[in-house]
Amino acid sequence: MVSNLNNLLCSDLPTKPQPELGKILVTGANGYIGGRLVPELIERGYQLRILVRKESPELKARWPDVEISVGDALNTADLLKALKGIHTAYYLIHSLLLGKNKFEKVDIKAATNFRIAAEKQNITRIIYLGGLGNTNKGLSSHLENRIKVAQELSNGTIPVTVLRAAMIIGSGSASFEILKNLVENTPIFILPKWARTQSQPISIRGVIQYLVGTMEIDETTGKEFDIGGNEIITYQKMLRVMSDLLGKKRYYFRGLVNSTSIYGFIASLLTHVPSPLTRALLVSCKNEVLCQNGDIKKYLNIKLLSFKEALIRALTNEGKDTKSTGYQNTFPQTHKIAI
Ligand SMILES: NC(=O)c1ccc[n+]([C@@H]2O[C@H](COP(=O)([O-])OP(=O)(O)OC[C@H]3O[C@@H](n4cnc5c(N)ncnc54)[C@H](OP(=O)(O)O)[C@@H]3O)[C@@H](O)[C@H]2O)c1
Question: What tens digit of pLDDT does each residue of 215-233 get?
């Protein structure tokens, strides 16, 4: 059990826990978002089951009261077992690690299986965290895929709440780790045009509060929401904020090459985040990812962090998060600022 309330991301969430809803399923519990959602739900008194592809003694030790269902979303029988007796299921699965040309089909297949199994088990609702992006604007295959997964899950009779986010800032999040590694390992940046593309990153705290809060507000059932931080910022500016925080003087020049694939390849050599993930995320930087509507605010009024505040939090929490993410942390002790 988690005992330090101050470390909880939902400690100031305005909604009331509703453990009486019944059993909640968290998929992708070994992943970044799932790994942070589970302890919050435990602390709020929910009965949990997690779906993981591999069981490990570490998982049991970390969450002794959580039921573990071992299975693959590509296997319908596994999903039927995992979804049996479930009230709400969080869908936090993606297959980007499979790389270009492979992940799209696999992700759609997994979502189709999940929708069908959820219907068969007649669960009450699904909550899916996907990606922002406007389909009319030539989206990257990753962002397009996130939208198609939302559509696929919503094709059935079980209502799906879709939360759409851009980059998520927290230690262990692939996009945060890439940004940090780039600044650490690159003294000179030759910036493409798309470095001026705007994005609306959100802190992991905000994402987890929205994920938990929407479950605790019945009226959000079956609705789609854009979630973002309170600041719109370019990738170029993100590099500058990160280098200031890390105390690293970096030099920026305009480049003539704009290919996101070339930049993706170079970035994959400079970060410890797996290459297929780095490349897919870099290619998505050409797309503006901004919240199109603020509907979520009608239901949940939470305090959002600025980009800089979210970075400071992430850098501050690195030591604590290393164990759960496996990512290497290199942030100097002197920068440990609590906010
Ligand atoms: N992180 C971000 O910055 C960000 C931003 C916007 C939206 N999102 C969305 O948030 C959701 C979760 O992302 P994340 O960052 O937590 O990703 P992640 O850390 O890569 O985790 C993905 C999870 O999916 C699981 N998975 C993949 N294929 C599976 C399958 N066939 N069956 C069962 N489980 C499977 C993985 O299990 P294994 O551990 O077995 O591999 C892993 O636990 C995704 O929908 C993503 O698009 C994330």
Answer: 999 999 999 999 999 999 9
Candidate of 25, 27, 32, 145 to mutate for ligand 1, largest count of ligand atoms within 8 Å of Cβ: 32
| Strand boundaries in the chain, DSSP class E | 23-27, 47-52, 67-70, 86-91, 125-131, 160-165, 168-169, 188-191, 198-199, 202-203, 224-227, 233-234, 251-254
- CB contact at 8 A, 77 and 117: no
Instruction: Give CA angle at 295 (288, 167), nearest 5°.
Output: 35
pLDDT in tens, 159-216: 999 999 999 999 989 999 999 999 999 999 999 999 999 999 999 999 999 999 999 9
Task: Tell me, using a 6 A CB cutoff, whether residue 181 lines ligand 1.
Answer: no
Q: Are 25 and 88 in contact (CB under 8 A)?
A: yes
Which domains, from first to last, does the chain contain?
Answer: 21-232+288-335 (3.40.50.720)
Centroid of ligand 1 to alpha carbon of 28 (angstroms): 5
Its pTM stands at 0.93
